[in-house]
């Protein structure tokens, strides 16, 4: 009997124990052990350390390359000048301010362009470029002259964009005088300041029309009367444009008359185009005094 009771008791204990153990085992499925957690943490710390190391290595390499580029590599060994200009290559190189031996990346190309135009006003356009691996290229062109305006007992010679190219004591050769226009200020290398902005606009419009339609041999311009703007052609024909309107048509009409021989190469006089827009007719009054 004792054995039977013990057997039953043992069986129940075992059953309870087995049930408890089985239940415990089911509850711990998927839960890492402490050793596993510590190993995973060590792996994470190792990956984080490697990431930081590679980042620092990358930054160090880039910084070293930048330092080398700015101190040892890419030193300028040549400055080349191309294009046409009245100035010598040495004058242009000196004006740009960039020297051989300087770092190519530290060269201030835009500032060099401004220096060249301010100190050498007859430079019309200038482009300064880096030329790898160790050169500077300067491309220039001559400024085109618009004409000369009297200013402070001198002649302010203007470019097509109205920069002051020089202040001459007398009218330069082959430079058309511009009458009827007053300048408030004229500083060499800078744009002229016109006293009358509407006259500046008229001058711009006339210059554009002349250039666009290819009328050459202009030897003078007069804006003294805004209702009768005149051009002097080849020193012998005064062209009366009238008001500053329809300028393209007027200039093209005048060019056709000269090109087709309607006005001979030897003739002098006044060509009136003031009403050509209205009646498609120009009037030429020849000078018979000479």
Name its key features.
4 domains; 290 residues; disordered N terminus; Ubiquitin-like (UB roll); six-stranded mixed beta sheet; three-stranded mixed beta sheet; 14 strands; 25% strand; alpha+beta
**What is the helix content?**
40-55%
Q: What is the SS-derived class?
A: alpha+beta
Q: Which residues form runs of ≥5 with pLDDT under 50?
A: 1-26
Note the run of SSEs as H and E: HHEHHEEEEEEEEHEEEHEHE
Number of distinct helices:
7
Distance between the termini: 164 Å
CATH class of the largest domain: Alpha Beta
Describe the 3D structure.
Residues 74-143 form the POTRA domain. One of its GO terms (biological process) is cell division. With 290 residues, the chain is α+β, with helices and mostly antiparallel strands. The protein has four domains: 1-27; 32-70; 78-142, membrane protein fhac (Ubiquitin-like (UB roll)), CATH 3.10.20.310; 145-286, Rossmann fold (3-Layer(aba) Sandwich), CATH 3.40.50. 40% of the residues lie in helices and 25% in strands. The protein contains seven helices and 14 strands. It has helices at 2-27, 34-71, 89-96, 109-119, 197-213, 247-259, 276-279, and strands at residues 78-83, 123-131, 135-142, 145-151, 154-159, 164-168, 178-179, 183-185, 193-194, 218-222, 229-233, 237-242, 269-272, 283-286. The protein has a six-stranded mixed beta sheet with strand order 7-10-11-12-13-14, with helices on one face. A hairpin with a 3-residue loop joins β2 and β3 (135-142). α5 (197-213) crosses α6 (247-259). It is elongated and about 120 Å long. Mean pLDDT is 86; it is low at 1-26.
